[in-house]
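input
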Amino acid sequence: MRNFVILQDVDFKCNLGYNQNMERYNLALDIQRIITYFDISIEQFADEIGLSRMQLYRLSNKLDLPSKSTLEKIYSYPYLHGIDLNKGKSALYMDNARDRKLLFHGTEADIKGQIDVDHSVPPNDFGNGFYAGETLPQAATWVANKDYASVYCFYARVDNLRAMTFYADRRWLYAILFYRNAFQGYDVPKEVHSLIEEIETSDIIIAPIADNEVYQTIQAFANSEITDEACIHAISASNLGNQYVFKNNDACKKLVFIDRLFLCTPEKAEYIVKKKALGKEGIEKANLAKIEYRREGKYFDELFKRQG
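output
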């Protein structure tokens, strides 16, 4: 396990408004954090990572925009020297959250302009919306296999939004089945229509995350390979944490941008290893649940009628 150190002797105050452009990183501040923690000069740091001193000086004074290879050199340095800068920053953002919710959005793209529901890429668990997770690892593992990956950090006040909360149960299962088009060719029952109407009139959805392994289990139920009871118990075993889905642009305005975290190559590699381990554990739990509840409940074709 990587030695995680919070950089307590570096200025880690959450400077809301420091970086108004979401496309950019807090690079100048991060360079200062790195050289302060390691007690080296900016000239020594430039030599260590193979950049010219003038190049690093211009970056540290926000005079130039960095290339991806430059970002890789800068952010790999603390990670390879035992300091997880992103975890340190996210931990301190959490300390400063107070009555706000700290959320993370992993992406391989630049977010330009205002946050809106069109940033989502279908298919999604709950249709159109802006999706964010509760923790840095949730967001980072989601994009760790991408060539260019970063995680956006936001604060949000969600207590005054019309929220709909799901658990790993039948309602959650039916909602995902609907938005994943599993009901094509079937008569959608009134209870599902009512559920979808409630989702679409909500400001925010708070629900368990469904990864590829969970989707496979849900698809097995949609194909009538396992029963609903086996499916629900299997997906409950995944326990990947919650996602927050902002369903309309007014709700998206509650998101306040804090920082953009660059994921360097060795950091992504470690997240991929962790994701594989969690996936293996989730599959084992799901398979046990399928065996335990294989004789309970009903199959998809028994619960829903085909059209015509």
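quick obs: The beta strands are 101-107, 130-133, 150-156, 163-165, 204-208, 242-246, 255-262.
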